[in-house]
């Protein structure tokens, strides 16, 4: 994990989300829909939060995507919990993630969200956006045929071999602290979608700027988002 993961607290936000909380089986999911449109919503994006869960910034990010014409689902993978960073340090943060973001459960939750969006909203095309720990999830989801694209933003440490199985293009948007994505792009160089893979480093931004740690009242940070 980056240094910011266990040293920077979540930003304060007075944003009022425009979406709603829905139950997908036993999972709370924040859903934001394009204004003035109705079912079917064929283009859907699933967003995975960072260690601070469904922070107002992350919901605002979802609302921005909805304004661009997508139905957006933000599952509460932590089921109401959130990390306590500065008071507990790196080891406690790792322990929290391992206990509250188990791979098998998270993957099952994600597949159920896809099914729900398909059956209830008529979604046919899926994209994924993952922040921090969500980037690790995205590195595994890109191997699932359901996804048309994955976007990984200031991601936690990734493994190149995960992208060898990718079935969709991936965009890597690291902050100044995060891994060089070139090795991940290199292992996808022979994929039919290789030219669609993308990387852009935000070298003036800290890890977490586009989600819970970003002060979106700062005009520069909001512009980058």
TrEMBL record:
Residue ranges annotated for the Dienelactone hydrolase domain, each copy included: 28-214
Family matches, as Gene3D superfamilies: alpha/beta hydrolase
Coiled-coil region list: none
GO molecular function, one term: hydrolase activity
InterPro entries: AB_hydrolase_fold (IPR029058), Dienelactn_hydro (IPR002925)
Top-rank lineage group of the source organism: Eukaryota
Organism: Rhizophagus irregularis (strain DAOM 197198w) (Glomus intraradices)
Name of the protein in question: Dienelactone hydrolase domain-containing protein
């Amino acid at each position: 994990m980056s240094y910011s993961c266990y040293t920077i607290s979540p930003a304060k936000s007075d944003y009022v989300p425009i979406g709603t909380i829905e139950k997908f089986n036993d999972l709370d999911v924040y859903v934001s829909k394009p204004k003035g449109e109705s079912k079917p919503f064929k283009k859907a994006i699933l967003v995975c939060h960072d260690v601070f869960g469904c922070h107002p910034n992350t919901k605002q990010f979802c609302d921005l995507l909805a304004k661009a014409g997508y139905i957006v689902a933000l599952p509460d993978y932590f089921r109401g919990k959130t990390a306590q960073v500065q008071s507990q340090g790196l080891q406690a943060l790792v322990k929290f993630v391992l206990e509250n973001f188990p791979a098998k459960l998270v993957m099952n939750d994600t597949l159920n969200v896809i099914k729900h969006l398909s059956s209830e909203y008529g979604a046919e095309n899926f994209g994924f956006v993952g922040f921090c720990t969500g980037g690790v999830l995205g590195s595994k989801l890109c191997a699932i045929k359901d996804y048309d694209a994955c976007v990984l933003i200031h991601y936690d440490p990734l493994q190149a071999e995960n992208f060898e199985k990718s079935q969709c293009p991936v965009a890597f948007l690291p902050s100044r602290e995060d891994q060089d994505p070139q090795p991940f792009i290199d292992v996808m160089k022979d994929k039919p979608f290789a030219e669609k893979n993308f990387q852009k480093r935000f070298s003036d931004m800290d890890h977490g700027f586009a989600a819970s740690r970003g002060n979106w009242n700062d005009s520069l940070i909001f512009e980058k988002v």
